[in-house]
Backbone:
């Protein structure tokens, strides 16, 4: 009886084997089908070949009764696979509803079936879920706690078509089963470093902020997931906080969202850790993250097809002669969308750079679009320019050694990016060896800079600057149409507290269609240049509270 029960469970866990068993082939002959032995006779070892002796017609495949040998083979296979891969319990998950549960402080059976019996972490030991053999199509809820601190977790469960694995923070409202659940489990889960070496993963920390309604607060606090790539002595644990595709052919179609990534904090050039690196993974989606205090670049993308990065706060990278950097390094992606991000206190080549000095990795690229971003320096939140650091960059982008269909900058705010003591330049820089590229800057707002020139024309098929505003910029090299020059930057709400919403409006913008007609906070654009629409509702209304519990009084 127990074997029969296990047989059913094994086939249920691996439905593809059950499907094969239903259609296990038996060679038969139409003319003698009626005289073939019954299934029960065959399973007892009966010989049916004599009944069809001498038949010269067409042989066919029949599934009306199951070959004993085939059924035995498939059952044996299901049992062996189930034993070898205990976590692969089909896409029904550990709880039968498509979910598994991980909680560092759990003391139950360690099966992942509910919050009491949750896995206690990630690894190959008993009671842990193995990142190399997780179940695709399943959501793994990870409660607050520390996981694999001091080491790198490598996510490398083999692909199964395009079926993803989701690693997700639970909330009071959404947490799978209620068995064993406590509202205290909605808390930050912390790791040291992740490497992603297979495809189709979603890492979702789900939430951030405290409902203050200000990005300067809400985008830098309260994340569901955190990577702390600092060993406590300003040295990194992994080469990157998150590394997509560190080996060729891996790390594609990965989404990283609502994750704080804290770097080593090294300012000496000893360590070169990055926030998020994508070497080989195609089509990454990087959104709603906070990346800060890295020993090298905040984000790095190599030849990875489409890049999509939005609603991130990137802050305080480090750059030295030994470990040179930029805020975002773009080394060969075909198309790029960098939208609605804050880039603060970024050192090196530029807030955005294209470091392909000799290998031509940026040749023949498509359109790279940058819109709705805020590029700025806040000296009070910077570690300072101590030797041997390169210091804050005056280039919001420095592009060189490549060819692009177009580089477009729409509705960005660029504010004292090279610092305020002394005030420096803020501009795009053509670093040379550029060919066949159209460059456009429209509806941008530049503030508190000594100068703001246009990039050199070398290698550009067109250079277009229109409808840009300059406040407290001593010398604007823009000779395009629709220029607005203001003596002061009083139109900003509070730059010293990183609030670049508009207290008064700019001159009219040049109207653009979707997706450029929405600002950083989701407000529809009607008039304003820069990253924010003047008077936008979202700029002044705090985020709504979540996870409220109503009590009805009798």
Residues:
């Amino acid at each position: 009886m127990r074997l029969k029960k296990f047989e059913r469970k094994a086939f249920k866990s691996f439905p593809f084997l059950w499907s094969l068993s239903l259609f296990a082939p038996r060679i038969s002959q139409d003319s003698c089908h009626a005289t073939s032995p019954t299934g029960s006779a065959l399973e007892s070892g009966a010989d049916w070949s004599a009944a069809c002796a001498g038949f010269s017609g067409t042989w066919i495949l029949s599934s009306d009764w199951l070959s004993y040998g085939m059924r035995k083979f498939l059952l044996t296979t299901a049992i062996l696979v189930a034993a070898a891969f205990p976590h692969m319990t089909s896409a029904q998950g550990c709880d039968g509803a498509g979910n598994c549960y991980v909680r560092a402080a759990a003391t139950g059976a360690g099966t992942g079936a509910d919050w009491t019996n949750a896995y206690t972490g990630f690894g190959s030991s008993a009671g842990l879920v193995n990142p190399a053999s997780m179940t695709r199509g399943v959501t793994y809820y990870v409660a607050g706690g520390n996981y694999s601190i001091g080491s790198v977790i490598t996510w490398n469960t083999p692909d199964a078509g395009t079926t993803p694995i989701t690693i997700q923070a639970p909330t009071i409202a959404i947490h799978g089963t209620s068995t064993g659940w406590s509202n205290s489990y909605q808390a930050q889960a912390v790791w040291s470093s992740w490497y992603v070496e297979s495809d189709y993963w979603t890492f979702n920390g789900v939430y951030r902020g405290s409902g203050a309604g200000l990005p300067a607060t809400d985008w830098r606090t309260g994340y569901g997931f955190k990577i702390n790539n600092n060993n406590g002595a300003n040295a990194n644990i992994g080469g990157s906080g998150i590394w997509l595709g560190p080996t060729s052919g891996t790390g594609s179609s990965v989404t990283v969202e609502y994750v704080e990534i804290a770097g080593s904090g090294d300012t000496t050039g000893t360590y070169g850790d990055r926030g998020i690196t994508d070497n080989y993974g195609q089509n990454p989606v990087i959104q709603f993250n906070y990346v800060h205090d890295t020993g090298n670049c905040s984000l790095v993308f190599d030849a990875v097809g489409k890049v999509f990065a939005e609603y991130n706060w990137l802050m305080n990278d480090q750059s030295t002669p030994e470990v040179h950097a930029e805020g975002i390094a773009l080394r060969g992606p075909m198309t790029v969308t960098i939208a609605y991000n804050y880039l603060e206190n970024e050192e090196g080549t530029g807030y955005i750079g294209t470091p392909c000095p000799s290998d031509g990795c940026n040749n023949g690229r498509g359109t790279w679009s940058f819109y709705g971003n805020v590029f700025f320096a806040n000296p009070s939140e910077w570690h300072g320019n101590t030797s041997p650091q390169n210091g804050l960059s005056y280039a919001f982008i420095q592009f060189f050694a490549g060819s692009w269909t177009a580089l477009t900058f729409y509705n960005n705010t660029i504010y004292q990016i090279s610092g305020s003591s002394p005030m420096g330049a803020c501009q795009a820089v053509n670093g040379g060896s550029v060919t066949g590229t159209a460059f456009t800057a429209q509806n941008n707002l530049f503030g508190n800079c000594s100068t703001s020139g246009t990039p050199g024309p070398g290698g550009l098929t067109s250079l277009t600057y229109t409808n840009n505003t300059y406040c407290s910029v001593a010398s604007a090299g823009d000779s395009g149409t629709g220029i607005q020059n203001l003596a002061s930057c009083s139109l900003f709400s509070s730059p010293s507290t990183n609030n670049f919403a508009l207290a008064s409006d700019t001159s009219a913008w040049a109207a653009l269609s979707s997706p450029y007609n929405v600002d950083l906070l989701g407000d529809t654009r009607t008039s304003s240049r820069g990253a924010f629409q003047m008077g936008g509702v979202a700029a002044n209304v705090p985020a709504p509270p979540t996870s409220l519990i109503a009590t009805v009084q009798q």
